[in-house]
Write a structure and sequence with these properties.
By secondary structure, the chain is mainly beta. The chain is built from one helix and 16 strands. It has a six-stranded antiparallel β-sheet, with no helix packed on it. The chain is flat and about 65 Å long.
Length: 186
């Protein structure tokens, strides 16, 4: 059992009948009264964010999380198939676990899969940037090159993104997986 003083960013706890990750926290020691910790928690199944205040007497279970590097191979309708590069074992991950990250997934990308001590898959971590090929984009309009905005484009995985006017269909671009924004040409 852990207490309020054990809370830190990235910690995964059992809370309200689910697994929650501590996104941010603030330890508060008021002039009067007992210390407490304000925290923002993210549900690992639904992605819901909640704010919670932990008192000094609150106790909760910490979930041990193991991280392993895997290579994404292919999508099999209901499952995403990953492979361990050292043992060549394959792992099928349900598409519900991947969620919105599927638009960043291209074959042969290396990801980190997070599992509990019992082997339950609780999520994946993508690299900070990925390279995608632009499948289609709006044509350039003469005179728009000085504008600070951009044009819509669709990548090979179906990701809608705003790119600069000089990007054409068939080009490779780098995309930030944290924000989903265009970074640069690849």
């Amino acid at each position: 059992m852990a207490s309020m003083s054990d809370i830190k960013k990235g910690l995964i706890i059992e809370f309200k009948n689910g697994l929650w990750e501590v996104v941010e926290f603030l330890h508060v020691k008021p002039g009067k009264g007992a210390a407490f910790t304000r925290s923002k928690l993210k549900n690992l199944k639904t992605g819901q964010l909640v704010e919670n205040t932990f008192r000094g007497s609150d106790k909760f279970n910490v979930v041990r999380v193991e991280k392993s590097k895997k290579q994404y191979l292919y999508y099999d309708g209901d499952f995403y198939v990953f492979m361990d590069n050292t043992t060549y074992e394959q792992l099928s991950v349900p598409s519900e676990v991947i969620g919105d990250l599927r638009k960043f997934m291209i074959e042969n990308i290396e990801v980190i899969i997070r599992t509990t001590g019992e082997g339950e898959i609780i999520g994946i971590e993508l690299p900070i940037c990925v390279v995608h090929k632009v499948k289609e984009c709006e044509p350039n309009v003469k005179g728009n090159t000085a504008s600070a905005s951009g044009k819509k484009a669709v990548t090979e995985t179906g990701l809608d993104i705003i790119v600069p006017f000089f990007i054409e269909a068939g080009e490779d671009i780098k995309i930030d997986t944290r924000t989903g924004n265009y970074m640069e040409r690849a």
